[in-house]
Amino acid sequence: MIDFEIPEEDGALLDAIDRMMAREFPPQAYREAEARHETPWHLLPVMGEMGLLALPFPQEYGGLGKDWRSAALVQERLAQHAGIAATLFNSAVTFGGMSLISYGSEAQKRKLLPPMMQGKIWFSLGLTESGAGSDAGGLITSARRIDGGWRINGRKTWISHAGTAQYLLVACRTEAGSKGSRGVSMLLVPRETPGISMTVIPKVGQNCMPSWDIGLQDVEVGDDALMGEAGQGFKHLMSTLHYSRAGQAANSVGQAQRAVNLAVQHARERHQFGQAIGSFQVIQHRLADMQMRVNQARLLLYQLAWLIATGRPCRLEAAQTKLVASETFQYVTRHGMQILASAGYAMESEMQRMWRDAGLFTFGEGSSEMQRNIIAKEMGL
Questions:
Q1: Among 8, 41, 244, 269, which has the highest number of CB atoms less than 10 A from its own CB?
Q2: Catalytic residues, which ones?
Q3: Complete domains list, the chain, with CATH
């Protein structure tokens, strides 16, 4: 049975997040960082000091041993203040920490988990290629055995945080002639390794989260760079995908709730024809639909977090939660823009930033179309 009551300890943590975000990254700071295309990396050490980055990890590695329900609550609350804060949390904890826990070696866990939980290092997942997006099995970046390690050649694109991450978790084809999901391995590559070149990709939104095109030319790493079993990279990726999709969903829900709150506030304050526009039924119904969509997405998120926390299979639930939450984020920001009208269209508006940012959530971490394919397959179709 799913219990929706927030434990007292988690409630106190959420209050602490409110205070921290108001102090460390208030709305004005977010606007300025977005305009300058800057990432607020200073938030990660602060999250580390608060114990946020240690929440879902075993105590034997210095973690707090909490389950994914706490992580979901934290990401949702961070996103209500700033979507980029939840994104940074997800990047560190999911792409780095949960990958290490799920298929990293004991030496890799001991070396990398403590500084990750302190917010001192973070990771970037190098999966997408120009011909390998939704069809991730189409990747051609190769890694060939050399004496004492691997030599990597290829190109990755649309890789978030790659320019500042300490480590790139790179999916490579390590078996010559293999196709699809077979023969792929995960290699943990220090970003400063010779042979790596990077070019930032200008984007419509998500300007606090730079995306990069990465060239890998004769990049050499040691045997200790291999994460998990050689040739089993896709199996390893699948073992952590529900964490990243849960993180994307929590981020979407938190930002969507922020958008609804902003629209309600505007509807109360904006007057036309001698009364607040929130008194008009057409606005009331639009806002009611927006809040209902957010509540529905939140329920799916909490169900998914419960399934993860209790070790139950959740491929179907992860896909539908990510799908519903990301499309809800788009829905409420689109309608929020209509309610705010010119006030929302101004570049200083939070609503327009979230409206621009929302687009990425419907195709990042698996497009809405691919999520529907997964759901249909899980239904036996």
A1: 244
A2: 365
A3: 8-122 (1.10.540.10), 124-230 (2.40.110.10), 234-378 (1.20.140.10)
